[in-house]
Design brief:
By secondary structure, the protein is of the alpha+beta class. The chain is 23% helix and 27% strand. The protein is built from four helices and five strands. The longest helix is centred in the middle third of the chain and has 9 residues, at 67-75.
Amino acid sequence: MRQADIYRKGVFAGVLTEYGGEYRFCYDEAYLMRDDAQPVSLTFPLQSESFVSPVLFPFFDGLIPEGWLLDVALRNTDISVLDRMSLLLLCCKECIGSVSVVSKPNTGDEA
């Protein structure tokens, strides 16, 4: 299992999880209760139910750099261009825009 904390404008908003061949994004309950809570994306409206997908959600995939910056990341790691979650965790802690992706330590529940 791999997880990432998702922040919007520096505020913890939820958790993205990859496990068992699927991806889940779930908002943090405390974030949902904030008066100033905003969705991290229009494709993720504020709700307490998890969003589930068999592939990395297009919004998060779109945060991964392209072109020469992606080439730099690939040249300096053993990550495959097809391993989108690893690229997201590696490259998107301080990406352009209001959303940040911060890797959580492995839980030991690898599938």
